[in-house]
Amino acid sequence: MPVTNFSFQEKYQYQNGFDSYFESEAVPGALPVGHNSPQKPPLGLYAEKLSGTAFTAPRHENKQSWLYRILPACSHPPFMPLASTNISSPEKKLHYIPNQLRWDPFDHLPDTDFVSGLRLLAGAGDPTLKQGLGIYVFAAGVSMSPQSAFYSADGDLLIVAQEGVLDIRTELGWLLVRPMEICVIPRGVRYQVHLPSGPARGYALELYQGHFSLPELGPIGSNGLANARDFQAPVASFTEDHSEEGNGENAKKYTITAKFNNTLFQTTQPHTPFDVVAWHGTYYPYKYDLGRFNTIGSVSFDHPDPSIFTVLSAPSSVPGTAVADFVIFPPRWLVGEDTFRPPWYHRNTMSEFMGLICGAYDAKKGGSGGFVPGGASLHNVMSGHGPDMESYEGARNAELKPAKVGGGSCAFMFESCLMVGVTEWALDKCDKVQTEYSEHSWGGLKVHWKGGQEE
Ligand SMILES: [Fe+2]
Fold it and tell me: Residues that bind Fe cation, according to the entry (predicted)?
């Protein structure tokens, strides 16, 4: 089924808001009025509920959507496990090590699509217990087949586009995700990733527990950081292809791949999974343009903790403690007086995975190979880190005028309260680990102590 049947206007009429109750119908009258599941839904559609939380979750956390579709999702033959894949392989075993890690940019994969190009880099916890997270890099050189769909039962996937454009068809509509944009595909939602401008690469975090929310703003007040109105959800968009199952050449032509406990399963069915004509609810995919982030910082001295740059936060059961925070370091003005302006040296009870979407990160100038767009770093629980020697000496001696840093750049961090393990692929097989990262970054730090005398 060609995907070019849809005009740009049909595909991308977004609904704006975060945690909003949305409704959308691609055909007028497809949404029932008042009833959620009338005896006969309008236009001969099936009503299907998609639950992102327990039915009984508190109202402010409850995420459910009603889908009105040509055939329900259950209409398929049994799933069969796929042979060893990048996700379901022994390499997913995690290694827990305290060393600082940094990776050169990960390879583009010209022959893979989004699903086969997902690589588990690190993780914590267990999707069967709905605890923890997985950290991925992805590379895709070809679009997914228009007769395929993927979903994960393991969690919500936050995708950070780094290079190339992702045109994502979901059951609930289309999302165009460009570099400097992110999207979240909720657990269970079926989708298909197209590459309208060639190869794509990026990062992803799968959240096994809970959902992302906007951080509380506290004394910041009612606006700032990521504003709710800038999040965009799709409008309903569907295809009619529901041929009867049989022995003809049209039989069983849509492939559905499921990620279930980090193992891939597949089935085929004779009807498109993208047949949702209308939907309403609070459980849906969404995207956000990082360029709209309202960055806030100090206007006197020192600088706030990096949590001031939090875009989205997935809270744990401990107040103020996140299973995963998504934090960015966008271009910003630094005006602090008598202040060491780069990030300070620190050791953190949280683990910090960082990636670079574009440009040069202001805390890392020297070192071997550096922190480069498409690469990554991991500073695990209590692994000391901070500016490299060159950045430290530069910042220590800089004349402190107001200065804009990070122009044309955006680094990000997945910060987690969990200790993350690293896969065999990340440590070895990918061949991107910078073995001298620590030595080159901090081995040459100078002693400025003069026996108690001022310099
Ligand atoms: Fe850090």
Answer: 352, 385
Q: What is the pLDDT of residues 42-66, one digit of tens each?
A: 999 999 999 999 999 999 999 999 9
Q: Can you give the pLDDT at residue 353?
A: 98
pLDDT at 4 exceeding the cut of 50 = no
Q: Cα(353)–Cα(378) distance, rounded to whole angstroms?
A: 4
d(CA 387, CA 384): 11
Q: Residues within the annotated binding site?
A: 346, 352, 361, 385
Residues that constitute the known binding site for Fe cation: 352, 385
On whether the CB atoms of residues 373 and 355 are closer than 8 A, the answer is no
* Domains of the chain in sequence order: 294-442 (2.60.120.10)
| Tokens 């040296």 found at | 345
294 sits in the region (left: phi over 0; alpha: psi -120 to 50; else beta) called: beta
pLDDT single digits (tens) 64-99: 999 999 999 999 999 999 876 666 555 568 999 999
What mean pLDDT is reported for the chain?
A: 92
From the CA of 158, how far away is ligand 1's center (Å)? 21
Q: Other CB atoms closer than 10 Å to residue 333's CB: what's the count?
A: 13
pLDDT at 366 over 80: no
| Catalytic choice (280, 303, 379, 440) | 303
Question: What is the CA(238)–ligand 1 centre distance, in A?
Answer: 44
Asked if residues 101 and 433 have their Cβ atoms less than 8 Å apart, the reply is yes
Q: How far, in Å, from the CA of 75 to the mean position of ligand 1? A: 47
**Lowest mean pLDDT segment, chosen from 11-15, 98-102, 240-244, 390-394:** 240-244
Calpha distance 145→197 (Å, rounded): 16
Sign of the torsion formed by the C-alpha atoms of 199, 261, 182 and 20: positive
Q: Where are the beta strands (DSSP E) in 171-242?
A: 173-177, 181-185, 191-194, 200-207, 231-233
Q: How far is the CA of 352 from the centre of ligand 1 (A)?
A: 6
The answer to whether 303 is a known catalytic residue is: yes
Residues 122, 281: Cα–Cα separation, whole Å: 33
Q: How far is the CA of 138 from the centre of ligand 1 (A)?
A: 23
